[in-house]
Amino acid sequence: MSQSTDPGVPVEGRRTGRPRSAAADRAILAATRAALVELGWSRLTLGDVASRAGVAKTTLYRRWPGKNELVVDALAELFDGLALPPDGGSLEADIVGVVLRFAALLERPEVRSALMALIAEGAYDAALRDRIRSAIVNRQKRLVLEGRARAVHRREIPPAPEPGPQADLIFDVIAGTVVHRALVSAEPVDETWASALAALVAAGLRG
Amino acid sequence: MSQSTDPGVPVEGRRTGRPRSAAADRAILAATRAALVELGWSRLTLGDVASRAGVAKTTLYRRWPGKNELVVDALAELFDGLALPPDGGSLEADIVGVVLRFAALLERPEVRSALMALIAEGAYDAALRDRIRSAIVNRQKRLVLEGRARAVHRREIPPAPEPGPQADLIFDVIAGTVVHRALVSAEPVDETWASALAALVAAGLRG
Amino acid sequence: MSQSTDPGVPVEGRRTGRPRSAAADRAILAATRAALVELGWSRLTLGDVASRAGVAKTTLYRRWPGKNELVVDALAELFDGLALPPDGGSLEADIVGVVLRFAALLERPEVRSALMALIAEGAYDAALRDRIRSAIVNRQKRLVLEGRARAVHRREIPPAPEPGPQADLIFDVIAGTVVHRALVSAEPVDETWASALAALVAAGLRG
Amino acid sequence: MSQSTDPGVPVEGRRTGRPRSAAADRAILAATRAALVELGWSRLTLGDVASRAGVAKTTLYRRWPGKNELVVDALAELFDGLALPPDGGSLEADIVGVVLRFAALLERPEVRSALMALIAEGAYDAALRDRIRSAIVNRQKRLVLEGRARAVHRREIPPAPEPGPQADLIFDVIAGTVVHRALVSAEPVDETWASALAALVAAGLRG
DNA sequence: TTCTAATCGAGACGGTACGTCACGTCTTTGC
DNA sequence: GCAAAGACGTGACGTACCGTCTCGATTAGAA
Lengths: 207, 207, 207, 207
Prior knowledge:
The first copy, chain A, is an all-alpha fold. Helix content of chain A is 68%, strand content 0%. In chain A, helix 1 packs across helix 4, helix 4 (67-79) crosses helix 6 (109-122) and helix 7 crosses helix 8. Chains A, B, C, D: Residues 22-82 form the HTH tetR-type domain.
């Protein structure tokens, strides 16, 4: 699980006094996701999250520095569940599997509304960018790398030094294209479309 | 042309009364971009934009319903400047040209900070999504179609019914991948990377 | 009738050009009273008055310097109608008559809400105070003086130099008491109450 | 005691949380009076009061619903200081004493500018009228009743059932007349004028 | 009759204050 | 020392009116 307590507060040195409630953490992150679903990123407020979680605002600020970091952790719990689909038997089938899994996550309303907002905030906040990368993005990239390894093992494509620039390109192609389809073009990512994309990517990898 | 007056107010039928100042429009959009560069999306306030533009806040709200729509129009003026590069002699060269031009736009600080935020807002606001599509996105789609037509004319790829699903896919791939590289992965879009992407796309189109 | 065009604009020297519409004056003052009835002083806006009168805001400002002066003139038209009641045959009866007439005016909603507001504004605006005095207050004072003259003529009270301090006192007593009853105590000014007040004032005048 | 916290918020039942600052109450009411003196009623703004008091606008709105109620409480603190003068030895002398004390209050600039405005607002707001009555007006009524009791004790006037309609009338006469003299006629309330009023009222009470 | 100049409606304009909201901090009482 | 509660200073929000201005279109009297 991604660390849900703010790493800025050292666990060391706090020995006496009432310990922090672990239940509060779970309640806060769940309340954050619920509020995202109902309100979307820009209407979400920390006061609202606190009262949904049955927690005082102070408790919330004691654990996270702000809205950005809280939402990163709330989404990270969802991405923790990402796993590579079972081997589809071919490069194309594996790509289709990854694309559909990624799209399913992207189409959850809490993710739709929050993920791009976090990346936007990251444009002016390097620490946030790192937090996003380690908690969310890299978890997806792993799928791409693993799928590629399967294809090499099946001898569909030649082996390549990893992690190398080509793996990054493939990741940008798949993730970027799905995001663009789902959030900008706002059209469904179904099996037909995923197959077309997989064909294009596989051709590129082979050719 | 970017739609800088709020389309909700029909231009037809308003004959009397003091006309809106065209200079104010220009000043407001320029001030918006300047504020984006300095402050980024989340710290940008409409009051600040108004005072930068030497304009009253009410003037601003008379023309745009809010921050989202204002920033769409401010960015749209930048995208209006996009043009297809001269014929590069091959499909790959043309793709590289488009990608580099597009990336140059995406790396301007006002775009970096605002574009993802707009897409995030669009997740819960269909009207905004349409506005983004018509003012910004579709302007680039034209480039893809034209580049494809050149390739067909050069007999590099077979002709296809247009605009069809494949053109849309190519567009999502190129635009999405470049945006993801520039704004999510936050790594440079240089000629090497652009060539790799072009190779992948061209192979997909041919294969 | 109280002058309804702003005296600050000299009538001299304006010979050519389109003359001001007299109908507009009437419509504006009537609209002002109607708005006062509906909204009361503090919610009355000049823009609303203008649109009720079917007139542009400019027309309104061309004739009155502001809300205060406009309302003075609007109320003045009501006070123009004030007349002494027929001779009641005794000092008490005449006082009762004046009190009831004054109270009837004070209880009109447009007057209730606006008269005290104007006096409050007058506390910091000497020109307004004069305008109120000449257009409204003096019209009431005349009734008191005339009633007193009748009583002297009937030999109910001794003659006195006029206008003298006693007349002013009587005026303040009657007007002030009625206003206090109607607007502060917010209780009805009926014939019973008026008779009690008249008895007190008459006793004071005689003794 | 003037009710300086909004009575709509019950003091009962609030045990936890940071308590409201009592110093803020005092600072706000003092700042309100200072702003009234400088600016008068109509130019007084709550933002200005807040910054004079060194307090946030929200603190002000947390305690009072608006300008009207705030000013009532600010004036009420002044009227709290009213006390019956020492026994003057006669009904007339006592009336003169009360009238002069009351007039001295009315001639303070903060009261001059605000009291009539409040009464005007009260014309369309029954709750405000009640607040004015209980916080300001009734405090003076006490003086009238007490002065009357003294006169009865001195056997100057016959005893009467109290509080009865006559006491209310006397109160309306004295308070209304002094207010009208001071704020509408805008002429001084000096000993001469007060004596004349006292004579009239005393004659009315005796006759 | 034509000219001319002030009027008219409409509505945009730069301002100012409004009353509300969310922020992130603080100060209480109670565990 | 943590927790809930809620007041606090701050600053932006979006709205409402203010009083002024710029339009094109009348409208009467003067030339």
